Amino acid sequence: MFTMSSMFLGLHALAAVVWVGGMFFAYMILRPAAGALEPPQRLPLWEGVLRRFFVWVWVAVVALPVTGYAQVFLDFGGFAEAGPHVQIMHGIAWVMIVLFLFLYFTPYRAYRRAVADGRWPEAGARLSAIRRIVAINTVLGLVTVAVGASGRLWG
Questions:
Q1: What is the residue-level pLDDT of the chain in tens, covering all 155 positions?
Q2: How many Å apart are CA 59 and CA 53, to the nearest integer?
Q3: What is the three-state SS of the chain?
Q4: What are the residue ranges spanned by the domains of the chain?
Q5: Could you count the other beta carbons within 10 Å of the beta carbon of residue 44?
Q6: Angle at Cα 118 formed by Cα 115 and Cα 122, nearest 5°?
Q7: Are 26 and 135 in contact (CB under 8 A)?
Q8: Which is nearest to 51 in space by CA: 140, 113, 144?
Q9: Which is nearest to 33 in space by CA: 41, 72, 147, 59?
Q10: How far is CA 43 from CA 9, 46, 58, 104, 136, in A?
Q11: Are 60 and 16 in contact (CB under 8 A)?
Q12: Taken in order 79, 80, 85, 87, is the CA torsion positive or negative?
C-alpha cells in the first residue's frame, strides 16, 4: 500500500542515486577520459559539466534531509527509536552536505572565474581541489548507500 513514508523513501533513494551516481561517473569515468584534453578544452568542459551537475546536487541537498527527516519521524517517531544505520546515514549526510557547500562557495566559484578569464593554471589548481572533495564525498556517499541498503538487517 502506498504511504507517505514510501513516497519519501522513493524520493530519498532517487536523490541519493543522482548525487552519488553523478559523483562516481564524474570521478571514475569522465575525469580519466577528459584528462587527455588540453587545459583550454578540458577546463571549460568541466565548468559546463559541474554547472549542470550542481543544479541536481542542490536538489539532492534539499531533498535528502527533508525526506530523511520525514522518514525518521513517520517510521520511528524520532531518532531515539531509529536504528544505528539511520544515525550513521544522518551523520555522514551532514558531512557530505558541508563538504559540498564549501566546494560550491569556495573552490568552484574561484574555478568558474578562472575559466571565464582563461587563467588555466589557476583553474587547474581549483579543479584539483574540487576533485579531492568530490573523491571524499564519493566514498562517503558509497558508504552511506551501503549502510542504508543493509542497515535494517544488522543484528
A1: 578 999 999 999 999 999 999 999 999 999 999 999 999 999 999 999 999 999 999 999 999 999 999 999 999 999 999 999 999 999 999 999 999 999 999 999 999 999 999 999 999 999 999 999 999 999 999 999 999 999 989 86
A2: 10
A3: CCCHHHHHHHHHHHHHHHHHHHHHHHHHHHHHHHCCCCHHHHHHHHHHHHHHHHHHHHHHHHHHHHHHHHHHHHHHCCHHHCCHHHHHHHHHHHHHHHHHHHHHHHHHHHHHHHHHCCCHHHHHHHHHHHHHHHHHHHHHHHHHHHHHHHHHHCC
A4: 4-19+39-153
A5: 16
A6: 65
A7: no
A8: 113
A9: 41
A10: 37, 5, 22, 16, 21
A11: yes
A12: positive
CA gap 25, 33 in Å, rounded: 11
Length of the chain: 155
Amino acid at 95: V
Name 33's Cβ contacts closer than 8 Å, sequence gap at least 6: none
39-71 helix and 109-116 helix, angle to the nearest 10 degrees: 160
Question: What cell numbers appear for 114 in the block?
Answer: 578562472
Distance CA 67, CA 12 (A): 6
